[in-house]
Fold this sequence. Notes:
single chain, mainly alpha, Cytochrome Bc1 Complex, Chain D, domain 2, 4 helices, Uncharacterised_YmfJ, YmfJ/YflH_sf, DUF3243 domain-containing protein, DUF3243
Amino acid sequence: MSILDNFDSWKDFLGDKMHNAEGQGLSQQEISDLAYEVGDYLATQVDAKNDQEAILRDLWNVASNDEKHAIANMMVKMVQNDGTMQ
């Protein structure tokens, strides 16, 4: 089963990556910038595997650049307490 098949698994995966980035000294801005890049890649290159991912992709596709940064920031905030490496 892929991490993209289940939204909770996806959030745990993102949480783990965010905690790893923090542990390596990346700033919140750098993490946010990476989240933006990941969001852009997922929206354009990866098929949604569940309803939540489809909603995020659709929101991303209609958002301005500022709104995309806001979505990326909200995703970072959403997964701050997720992950298996807490």
